[in-house]
Amino acid sequence: MPPKFDPTQVSYIALRATGGEVSSSSALAPKIGPLGLSPKKVGEDIAKATKDWKGIRVTVQLKVQNRQATVTVLPSASSLVIRALKETPRDKKKEKNILHNGNMSLDDVISIARAMREADRSMARELKGSVKEILGTCMSVGCTVDGESPKDIQSQIAAGEIEVPEK
Fold first, then answer.
1. What does the radius of gyration of the chain's CA atoms come to, in whole angstroms?
2. CA torsion angle for 39, 37, 15, 129 (degrees, to 10)?
3. How do residues 68-82 score in pLDDT, each as one tens digit?
4. CA atoms of 103 and 145, how far apart (whole Å)
């Protein structure tokens, strides 16, 4: 016989979801079914919580306590970069292999780096290192920073030509 249900127990589940879309209940069922939650209801809660991130894949954390799920969005560096590019939302079913060839300012990169540090999602010791991490993400996403390649700006920061303000 399974152990008795403990209402004070808190469990966390991390999922990747596309913002603003109801994910399929068949994908959610194996993760949240054993906790006694309805996959359809949780999918609607996730869609409601991620409506600001329409069309962008974000990590979602579910906190389950007493058979109630609360949804928090944990944006990754790439989703923050794509959001900063202010592109129009696209349908992921129709358009594949999207190139994000926009341009963003260094101030945007620094603000994203600060957000990642506040959320404890950056591995760097200083803000300068976090900015380099975000520039690497910009490189992989395919966008430019101030009209230059993110790699060039990384080397300028390393050489001390560009100063990153600590505050």
1. 19
2. 150
3. 888 888 888 888 888
4. 6
